[in-house]
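If you are new to this repository, start here. Below is one unmodified record pulled from the training split, so you can see the exact layout before writing a loader.
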Amino acid sequence: MTVLLAPMEGLLDFVLRDILTRVGGIDRCVSEFIRITDQLLPERVFTRIVPELHNGGKTFAGVPVRAQLLGSDPVCLAENAARLASLGPDGIDLNFGCPANVVNRHGGGASLLKEPETIFAIVAAVRRAVPAHMPVSAKMRLGYSDDSLAIDCAQAIAQGGANELVVHARTKAQAYRPPAYWERIADIRAVVGIPVVANGEIWTIDDARRCRAASGCNMLMIGRGAVVDPGLGQAIQNDMRGIATVAPVAWPSLLPLIADFWHIVCTRLDARSRAGRLKQWLNFLRRRFPEAEHAYRALKTVNDPAVIGAWLAAEAHAHRAAMPARPAQPLLAA
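And here is the target side for that same chain:
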């Protein structure tokens, strides 16, 4: 069983990758997309979005990070992929699934699912541009407005030389509305000769079981489910290995990670977005933890970093008796 952590623009960035991979159960991460237009980007752009490149292409928990590119020009994508490859990521991933309208209006992301021939050209160009030992993977949705070209697009990716394919089991038009159509991933698996990863609507162990049964995949990618429940990856791994008792991550164990998250946010992100990032995560966490509901309500209107820090410190002190000692974690270099 392999569990991957999904990229999500504005949510699952290097900060949450760092924190969530400390919990365990994540075998590999994919970065949020790096947008490629008509120029060769300087190295600092790649390392800003994927600072794990300063750490051997891994989070500090040792989990490999594959860097994702988004664009529509095969030549420009290939040039940027070559530069990115020289910085040592775990591999290069290509985005054919982003549903954002601003991305699709400019010919990127899911809009390319209307053009299998362009997808093939992009994958083939990037595959030629990076060292043979470096994996090239891709993520796609089932289609743009419908899934009539799903097989064609998947075959274009495989024939272009990709080593792996992640399929988000919804179209662009379906966005993030449930359900995910996992059975269509099985149709894709039947016609491509590369490993396929199933993605979409995996929130619980039961979801993972049903996705695995419907898709036939032993590789799953989780996104929002891991943000809501940081222990989901480990729980899925344990369940698939037949470990009957799965101990969930408890709130006292999560508090130090929230404090570390806040420390990284305050150290690395723009001051105007810091409080919002914490509230964003707490908003997700309250779906799983009643204590997160209390934290969210307490901090919802607070923007002063000193007040937020003091509140988190008081919460940690109140739960300290239940928290095991742990070593200090380093920060990724800027």
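Two things worth knowing about this chain: The two ends are 33 Å apart (CA to CA). Strands lie at 2-5, 28-35, 65-70, 92-96, 136-141, 164-168, 196-199, 219-222.
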